[in-house]
Input
Amino acid sequence: MCCRCTQVLKSAPISVPCSSRHILCQTCCVEMRAMKEYTCPQCDEEFDIEDDWVPVVDETRK
Ligand SMILES: [Zn+2]
Ligand SMILES: [Zn+2]
Output
């Protein structure tokens, strides 16, 4: 579940670079980056490295 819009993830989850690596859906990731909103919606932790938004890779599909 996405920690910003609380919708069940329909696409690949994105983990934000907060210390708890909270999960966002792709829509929220795009929206937050577009609005330069670099604060984790879940823990309120700020981050500023845009490149560190990591798609959570499904290891079983490699
Ligand atoms: Zn979302
Ligand atoms: Zn967080």
User: Anything to note?
Assistant: Residues 2, 4-5, 7, 24-25, 27-28 surround zinc ion (ligand 1) (CB under 6 Å). Residues 1-55 form one domain. The beta strands are 14-15, 23-24, 54-55. The two ends are 23 Å apart (CA to CA).
